[in-house]
Amino acid sequence: MIDSETLYLIGAQNMNDNKNISRAVIKRLPRYYTYLKQLQEDGINRISSEELSRLMGVTASQIRQDLNHFGGFGQQGYGYNVAYLYEEIGKILGLERVYSMIIIGAGNLGQALARYSHFRQRGIEVKALFDVKEELIGKTEGGVEILHIDSLEDYVKENPVEIATIAIPKTQAVRVAPRLVALDIKAVWNFSHVDLKFPEDVVVENVHLSESLMRLTYNYNSKYPLN
Amino acid sequence: MIDSETLYLIGAQNMNDNKNISRAVIKRLPRYYTYLKQLQEDGINRISSEELSRLMGVTASQIRQDLNHFGGFGQQGYGYNVAYLYEEIGKILGLERVYSMIIIGAGNLGQALARYSHFRQRGIEVKALFDVKEELIGKTEGGVEILHIDSLEDYVKENPVEIATIAIPKTQAVRVAPRLVALDIKAVWNFSHVDLKFPEDVVVENVHLSESLMRLTYNYNSKYPLN
User: To the nearest whole number, what is the mean pLDDT of chain A?
Assistant: First the structure.
């Protein structure tokens, strides 16, 4: 029987090898991370691939394959060390850092995002909201001040910003995008309904809610057609 | 040269053959639909695969392959009929119907969704919001009344509901899910941070915002590590 500390060291060695983890596995890591967090909150310290399989609805062999990258864990009759796995996956996902985020758009969506408590757990600090609506300027939302979009350049020059979240309609979004590029912001979380064009060196993650809704209506309509 | 009406008829015949369109193409249709809508709004009636390719950032040959399913369109030097293509793709996506939606959770996210004007363009009518917070009950948000979650069963028995949107924390979501199943609701748009378990006959679309954010931080951190 290998003790917990030895396992930690085996795992830690493997961690130096991040680059060898395939893109496909990386894509699944946020899902594992979410479930491992839940297990920790539920006070569960160890879990077998079979239990994790039932919980996540993927095959146990897929889980063993994926988590195999994390060293000597999940041994027969031993199970995964939840806290360790959670921490290591968090490191790979870049969640040990703190990221400063600004949100462009203080409408309902921007406000919902500013209040999103999950951000802080992921090392995201929402620093400011920006809007054009005079009646919103100077107010605070989720403890974050709403500033006028005209002050975007001044703000970013004085405050380091890693992530800009775009929560405004597409017609405005296409005008804000080049300003973010000019300000050297390298990560954009885009909720507007267009794929905004950014230079190669900007990392972009698009959330197209209406496309998600269309997938839902498509699948529903296929299964339950009107006639 | 084939005239517009003949083209319409060729297209219409092909439309009877929806089943032959592959899942991969179907997955891309919401994206086409979004761009075609934008083109219509911009007053553009025809577009070549090359122009659409530049706009959407996919190859022209991919576009020709995908839209080939829609009959005799996109002929050399002729281009696609934007309005027709938009309408036909909308039919396939089930957007000719009207869907009644309820939103579970009248917090910031639920409120943002209730106000989402894009829903109405997609045939989605938000009928009611549900929450537990006494101070919210009876208020309206985006023209939609907030009801107590205890009245969910009574409401759904009297009002047809196709889609339930879940915009509450996971601990509450796991308790609401079985109630939706018992009420025979067959489409769920899930924003909570868990993959809720539903029977096979329920169509589910998950929107995991924190997973999207983790993909962003992962990609950013890989490209711009701290040291």
Answer: 84
**A226 contact residues in B (CB cutoff 8 A):** 97
Q: Answer whether B80's CB lies under 8 Å from B4's CB.
A: no
Continuous segment of H or E residues that includes residue A104: strand A99-104
- Listed residue (B102, B119, B217, B100) closest to B165, CA to CA: B102
Phi, psi of A99 (to 5 degrees): -115, 130
The DSSP string of B145-177 is EEEEGGGHHHHHHHS--SEEEE-S-HHHHHHHH
Q: Tell if the CB–CB gap between B193 and A93 is shorter than 8 Å.
A: no
- B218: closest chain A residue by CA: A93
- Lowest-pLDDT choice from B60-69, B80-89, B111-120: B111-120
Q: What tokens appear for A184 in the block?
A: 């050297």
Alpha-carbon distances, residue B159 vs A211, B127, B132 (angstroms): 26, 9, 20
pLDDT number for residue A34: 87
Tell me if B31 and A211 make a contact (CB, 8 A cut-off). Answer: yes
Q: What is the ipTM of this complex?
A: 0.82
Which pair of structure tokens corresponds to residue B4? 């517009």
CB contact under 8 A, B222 and A94: yes
| pLDDT over 70 at A1, yes or no | no
Shortest alpha-carbon distance between residue A157 and chain B (Å): 19
Residue A198 pLDDT level (bands cut at 50, 70, 90): very high
Helix (H), strand (E), coil (C) string for B104-123? ECCCHHHHHHHCCHHHHHCC
> Which whole number is the average pLDDT over A207-222?
90
What are the tokens at B132? 């537990």
Q: How far is B2 from chain A (nearest CA, A)?
A: 31
Mean pLDDT of A165-172: 90
pLDDT of residue B44: 92
pTM recorded for the entire structure: 0.80
Q: Are A99 and B217 in contact (CB under 8 A)?
A: yes
Angle at B38 (CA atoms; ends A164, A167), nearest 5 degrees:
20
Residue (of A168, A142, A116) closest to B109 by Cα position: A116
Phi, psi for residue B126 in degrees, rounded to 5: -80, 120
Residues 5-64 of A with CB under 8 A from B: 26-27, 29-31, 33-34, 38, 56-57
Residues 70-129 of B with CB under 8 A from A: 92-95, 97, 99, 107-109, 111-112, 115-116, 118-119, 122-124
Where do the H-state alpha helices sit in chain A? 4-15, 23-41, 49-56, 60-67, 82-92, 108-114, 117-121, 152-158, 170-182, 209-223
